[in-house]
């Protein structure tokens, strides 16, 4: 990748924007998302994912816990 | 040698100097050292019962003594402190990720400080800046590990970018952080570690049908989409075209990272490609299983279709599981076979780029030495790691247990930290306004949509042909 970026210019009063962003993050992650997690449909999905050992944010097959029995079977040479 | 292709020929450094100072070679040294030490520690620390069990071809469980010392924040739902420490309950064991995170910080901090000192003499400056960058990465992982965020595949790359962007576009990135903002170095080292997970012997997991769906369709879609982007859409940036084509056709963010590094894409292009991929992955994860069920498609066929088209591995599993066990297993295995294609893609893109894209169109073809000089050397480390660990995994007694344990407890954690540090670095160096031109005309979106449409049609056809017509017993 090229190093073509200059450093972005600072906002003259950047601190309030930074604090505002952090406050928004705090509200979403500490209040909105935990409340959402308790909604029946969302909770059911989270429980279902846990039960199946699926992590939808897994990037590579080695990150997926549910692949472990498949990989062990492959290691033993079974189909 | 075509000197008109070599404006910098007179400033080329000797090979030995390159080995000592080049970022690509240091990515290989650092990544290679981590892999070597991790494997030797795992191999040397097995219990007395392990090797006899391996010799007798009984089930042998390997352990990794490094695992408690390398960790990321854990999943949490209501209380973010749970990501760092959670006492044991009746249902679950205790969680304490703090020692592991400190371990990762020390390992990466010392290795990169040493490398930076040799390369640029800025080792001390790096050590002063690195703890801050690392803490920002901890924060990004914390945002990503909230369970609702994880459930919708909104992975850490997104939040790391956001954290960096917020700082750089508000108060500005402090100058003292610059020595530790090493985007390409982190990415290349992470890719060398990822190479050890690209195990070629896994290719045959689903036999010929899996190889055809994952390894025949994918290059066709990638090349077709790239040509479409160049000839029809006339994308202004070839590298952006290639990164989007790769992340859509192969396996999402991992493929985008590897391809961007191989074709020296601008880091903003990588960010855009990842944003596109993650957005559509969420949609496809929900819509595809619903469609498959609505039309009454067979589980195996549906699973293969999902595995070959949805970008992210975790999202593939989530979508496949909706259809059933057989769909889940087929989908995840097809995606695994596609994951293994990353090495070949990165190598091929690198060769194509230095041989054709970077050459002077009016000059003669570049020589082999010219191609070697311009070739991104970290790809060699990536491929070598893949070859070495594929051989160990496939031929050594106890190889599968040792390699899998090494990956699970050491190298995949460190590569995630490295990628997260890279995306924090990208965010810290990017201006929001610089991203705007990429959205003009909607060409990246059009490219993604057209390419993914081709991917959906071709993958479904190939999956049907292989799993239902040619190899129905599969």
The quaternary structure here is heterodimer
Mean pLDDT of chain B: 90
Described by strand count, sense and barrel closure, the largest sheet of chain B is: 2 strands, antiparallel
Structural class of chain A: mainly alpha
Number of strands of chain B: 2
**What is the rounded distance between the termini of chain B?**
53 Å
| Largest interface: chains, residues each | A-B, 47 and 71 residues
Helix and strand composition category of chain B: mainly alpha
Question: What is the end-to-end distance of chain A?
Answer: 41 Å
Main pleated sheet of chain A: none
Spatial extent as radius of gyration of chain A: 21 Å
Q: What is the percent of helical residues of chain A? A: 55-70%
Description:
The complex is a heterodimer of chains A (79) and B (474). Chain A has helices spanning 14-38, 40-51, 68-75. Chain A has 79 residues and is mostly helical. Chain A is elongated and about 65 Å long. Chain A starts with 13 loop residues before the first helix and ends with a helix. The model of chain A has no long low-confidence stretch (mean pLDDT 83). With 474 residues, chain B is mainly α. Helix content of chain B is 70%, strand content 1%. Chain B has 21 helices and two strands. Chain B has a two-stranded antiparallel ribbon with strand order 1-2. Mean pLDDT of chain B is 90; it is low at 1-10. Classes of the chains: A mainly alpha (79), B mainly alpha (474). Chains A and B meet through α1, α2 and α3 of A and α6, α7, α8, α11 and α12 of B.
Pick out its properties.
heterodimer; A: 79 residues; mainly alpha; 3 helices; B: 474 residues; two-stranded antiparallel sheet; 21 helices; 1% strand; globular
Sum this structure up briefly.
Chain A has 79 residues and is mainly α. Helices cover 57% and strands 0% of the residues of chain A.
SSE diagram, text form:
The complex is a heterodimer of chains A (79) and B (474).
Chain A lengths: L13 H25 L1 H12 L16 H8 L4
Chain B lengths: L14 H7 L1 H22 L5 H6 L29 E2 L8 E2 L1 H23 L2 H22 L2 H5 L4 H13 L14 H13 L11 H25 L6 H12 L3 H10 L4 H28 L4 H11 L3 H11 L1 H15 L2 H16 L10 H7 L3 H18 L3 H30 L3 H8 L3 H28 L4
Antiparallel strand pairs in B: 1-2
């Amino acid at each position: 990748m090229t190093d073509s970026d200059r450093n972005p210019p600072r906002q003259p009063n950047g601190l309030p924007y930074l604090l505002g962003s952090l406050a928004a993050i705090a509200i979403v992650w500490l209040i909105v998302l935990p409340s959402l997690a308790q909604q029946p449909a969302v909770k059911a999905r989270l429980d279902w994912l846990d039960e199946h050992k699926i992590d939808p944010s897994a990037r590579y097959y080695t990150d997926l816990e549910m692949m472990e029995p498949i990989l062990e079977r492959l290691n033993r040479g079974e189909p | 040698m075509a000197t008109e292709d070599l404006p910098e020929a007179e400033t080329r450094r000797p090979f030995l100097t390159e080995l000592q100072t080049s970022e690509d070679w240091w990515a290989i040294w650092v990544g290679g050292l981590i892999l070597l030490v991790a494997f030797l520690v795992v191999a040397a620390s097995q219990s007395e019962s392990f090797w006899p069990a391996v010799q007798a071809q009984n089930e042998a469980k390997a352990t990794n003594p490094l695992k408690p010392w390398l960790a990321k924040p854990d999943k949490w739902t209501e209380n973010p402190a749970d990501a760092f420490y959670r006492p044991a309950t009746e249902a679950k064991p205790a969680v304490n990720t703090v020692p592991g995170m400190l371990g990762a910080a020390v390992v990466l901090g010392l290795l990169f400080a040493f490398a930076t000192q040799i390369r640029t003499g800025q080792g001390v400056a790096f050590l002063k800046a690195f703890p801050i960058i690392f803490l920002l990465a901890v924060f990004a992982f914390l945002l990503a590990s909230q369970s609702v965020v994880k459930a919708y595949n909104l992975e850490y790359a997104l939040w790391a970018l956001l954290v960096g962007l917020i700082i750089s576009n508000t108060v500005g990135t402090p100058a003292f952080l610059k020595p530790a903002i090493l985007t390409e170095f982190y990415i290349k080292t992470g890719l060398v570690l990822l190479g050890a997970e690209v195990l070629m012997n896994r290719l045959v997991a689903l036999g010929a049908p899996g190889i055809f769906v994952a390894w025949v369709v994918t290059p066709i879609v990638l090349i077709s989409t790239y040509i479409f982007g160049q000839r029809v859409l006339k994308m202004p940036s070839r590298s952006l075209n290639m990164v989007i084509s790769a992340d859509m056709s192969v396996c999402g963010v991992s493929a985008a990272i590897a391809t961007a590094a191989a074709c020296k894409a601008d880091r903003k292009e990588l960010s855009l490609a990842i944003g596109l991929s993650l957005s559509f992955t969420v949609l496809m994860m929900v819509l595809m299983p619903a469609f498959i069920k609505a039309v009454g498609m067979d589980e195996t066929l549906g699973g293969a279709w999902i595995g070959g088209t949805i970008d992210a591995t975790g999202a593939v599993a989530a979508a496949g599981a909706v259809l059933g066990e057989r769909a889940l297993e087929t989908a995840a295995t097809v995606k695994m076979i596609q994951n293994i294609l990353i090495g070949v893609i990165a190598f091929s893109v690198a060769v194509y780029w230095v041989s054709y894209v970077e050459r002077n169109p009016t000059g003669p073809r570049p020589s082999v030495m010219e191609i070697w000089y311009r070739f991104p050397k970290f790809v060699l480390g990536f491929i070598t790691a893949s070859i070495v660990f594929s051989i160990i995994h496939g031929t050594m007694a106890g190889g599968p247990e040792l390699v899998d344990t090494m990956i699970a407890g050491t190298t995949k954690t460190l590569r995630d930290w490295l990628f997260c540090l890279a995306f924090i670095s990208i965010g810290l160096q990017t201006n929001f306004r610089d991203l705007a031109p990429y959205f003009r005309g909607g060409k990246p979106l059009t490219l993604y949509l057209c390419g993914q449409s081709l991917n959906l049609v071709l993958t479904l056809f190939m999956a049907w042909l292989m799993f239902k017509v040619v190899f129905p017993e599969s």
